[in-house]
Amino acid sequence: MKLPLDGIRVVEMSHMVMGPSCGMFLAFLGAEVIKIEPPEGDKTRNLTGMGAGFFPTFNRGKKSVVLDIKAPEGRADLERLLATADVFVENFRSESLARMGLDPDSLRRRFPRLIVASCKGFLEGPYENRAAMDELVQMMTGMAYMTGPTGRPLRIGSSANDIMGGLFAAYGVLGQIIARGRDGHGSVVRSGLFENCLLLVAQHMVQFDIEGTESPPMPERVFSWPVYDIFQTRDGRQIFLGAVTETQWAALCRVLGLEALLSDPRLQTRPDQIAARSWTLPVVAEAVAARDYANLLAACDAAGLLCSPIARPAEMYDDPHVTRPGGLIQSRYADKKDFRAPGLPFSVDGTSPVPADADLPSVGQHTAEVLSALPQMERA
């Protein structure tokens, strides 16, 4: 299918996760995304451990062009490339860009129609020149405080701020492409890692602003539901069960053979059921512990209950919904193992957008192809 950003050229000069994820989102919507790499290649190509998935996950569907932008010839080639671009994505420190003449203001003077997407640690303000990473802003905003138990702040188990920071940069780019269609002018979109994380904790901020009370960390939270917990089955498996409505409470009691709770006068309203968690949860836990995992999960699912295994990321490759047609995208990784990864988490008319080529380029694979097609510019 024809994708909405077909014909849009994006030049991406970024590394790690935030900038590359912005480029990947635009590529999956059909843009031609040209990733500028140094002669030795993007440093994240060779990360191991928890960093091994950075480059392959967030650089799918892009072209690789090697330029030594520290050299005059490389800078001249970048200028020629930017003259043909609609969008420039970067996530470098502002002073480094200014030294190279690649700061947003300089770029817009030379390329008035260019949309610059700057993926930064902070938006404009007192912190705008501070260094930042995902874990740091989780500590700064209260996200880590809310995730771990009291006294043990804990980052969430994903580069969520980097990924969503890139998403908001791409979101801003889409809006400015529409605006440019009206007025013909380029613009600068700046996405902040800190501000992204701030939005993720906004519900807790607003609770305090409205009620004057602070929520405790999530492991110690005051529950708003009768059952919303993790239990262990007879065969040693963990299962998450939730009953958040009167109907679900009744269904869970029936599945677990706890019909006596339905007629208990202490449990006739949801507030009653929530207030009684201290003694009902041990009863539920005992009933769960008498059931085998697979049987209980199937029974809860059939009853329309909130139920889930406690899964590991690696187990997603065996999940029937993940592996449904279109759930995973196969990518070739030059000189390394091919892999499967999720695409964009939405569909249009039943189909999720995927670029024509979701493979990973080798270092500089498209340098000759891209540069040879550029118009020549007079060199100073």
Automatic annotation (TrEMBL):
Organism: Paracoccus angustae
Gene3D superfamilies with a match to the protein in the record: Crotonobetainyl-coa:carnitine coa-transferase, domain 1 (3.40.50.10540), formyl-coa transferase, domain 3 (3.30.1540.10)
Top-level taxon of origin: Bacteria
GO molecular function: transferase activity
Species classification: Bacteria, Pseudomonadati, Pseudomonadota, Alphaproteobacteria, Rhodobacterales
InterPro entries (alphabetical): CoA-transferase_III, CoA-Trfase_fam_III, CoA-Trfase_III_dom3_sf, CoA-Trfase_III_dom_1_sf
UniProt protein name: CaiB/BaiF CoA transferase family protein
Keywords: Transferase
Entry's transmembrane regions: none
